[in-house]
Amino acid sequence: EKDIPVANFIIHEIHCSRNIQVCRYCGESIPKSEMKNHVESEHVQVICKCRMKMENSLLKDHEASACPLRPALCQYCDIPLTFDKLQDHEVYCGARTETCGGCGRNVMVKDLKEHPQVCG
């Protein structure tokens, strides 16, 4: 959007009414010749692998940050999981024990990062 001189406003208004259309889904101004492609590429309904239905334009963000089936790595063993399985796995995985090379005690994996501060 920009300011239009009064002298050109009527010509501009005629041009816009002939060539521009407002998308009924998102309110964006789209050239009429591109409206069909815009609706089909941005607003068509798709189904994610998690079975959630949404507009195609939202799918990429959903898959990256909200989908329960998005890829995730365990912070303790780096095994690839889906996000919906991560918490249960990390509770189990973090509770495993490993022997400390310094003091010889068995330390839970979830405590290994802090253990050197109390080791001895």
What string gives the helices and strands in order? HEEHEEHEEHEEH
Number of helices: 5
- DSSP strand tally: 8
Strand content: 15-25%
Mean pLDDT metric: 91
CA radius of gyration is: 28 Å
Domain TRAFD1/XAF1 zinc finger: 78-120
Protein name: TRAF-type zinc finger domain-containing protein 1
Keywords: Acetylation, Metal-binding, Phosphoprotein, Zinc, Zinc-finger
GO cellular component, one term: mitochondrion
Please give a structural write-up:
By secondary structure, the chain is α+β, with helices and mostly antiparallel strands. It has 5 helices and 8 strands; from the N terminus they run H-E-E-H-E-E-H-E-E-H-E-E-H. A hairpin with a 6-residue loop joins strand 7 and strand 8. The protein has a two-stranded antiparallel ribbon with strand order 1-2. Strands 3-4 form a two-stranded antiparallel ribbon. It folds into 2 domains: 1-40, no CATH class; 74-117, no CATH class.
